[in-house]
Amino acid sequence: MNGLVLWLLFDDGNCSYTKSILENNELFANYDLVKVYAIGINDLKLHPLTKANINWEYKKINLSLANVDLIKDLNNLPSPDIILASPPCESFSMADCSCRMSQTYDNDKWIVRSREWYRNRALTADVPNKTRDFIKKERNRLNGEGCASGLVHIIETFKPKAYVIENPRNSKIWEFLKNHWSFEGFKNITYYYNYDLNFSQKPTCFMSNYSLNLKKQMLKNGYNKNHYTLGNYDERSSIPTKLIADILKQTINQLN
């Protein structure tokens, strides 16, 4: 039987990968059976779905390296041919640059701001927007680094034919993967509004073991400039379904 197995890692928020695969099932017309596993930590009450030749199922698994049973848990699933992953980006974001906890990930050391630094900043009268919750920042950092590390461990253990990792173009995750894990790939850059004008520009990198020809045309107007400022974290982190379909089409062509 001509089959394909996909793992959609961290696809438990807006479920963008799941939505695109089910909406674009024609991409898999040449396969007899496609098994798709969306994997994340949220307690989603979703039943297995079947659409044409696609069997989709959600699995609740902690994908952080802090999960000592990570590989054991994943070994219960069929090994992946393709991994699509959107690890959490909050702790790696450049948006809060003046208060970002992790400053640099060098080859031999990290520079991480301490609790005392945040305390002193809160006491500095002439600094705007000066306070931060240290516990929240620390929790986000540990979660972000743990998930990124778990992702590398998963890819290196299960050795999929293709993987694609999504994060903002300027995310510190790329520095973390390269300098701390010696893990690199092709950095495929695109703009979300090239695939859906309901999105903002949002320069994004989809790092893969394959080079992808993604759209990156600059637009002056005609798109939703407010998309990134509206909604909750899951809504802001959604990915255009047409973009995912383009990535999958190119990836499947590479495999064949």
Automatic annotation (TrEMBL):
UniProt cross-references to InterPro entries, sorted A to Z: C5_DNA_meth_AS (IPR018117), SAM-dependent_MTases_sf (IPR029063)
Isomerase found in the keyword field: no
Protein name, as recorded: C-5 cytosine-specific DNA methyltransferase
Keyword S-adenosyl-L-methionine attributed: yes
GO molecular function terms attached to this record: methyltransferase activity
UniProt keyword list: Methyltransferase, S-adenosyl-L-methionine, Transferase
GO biological process, one term: methylation
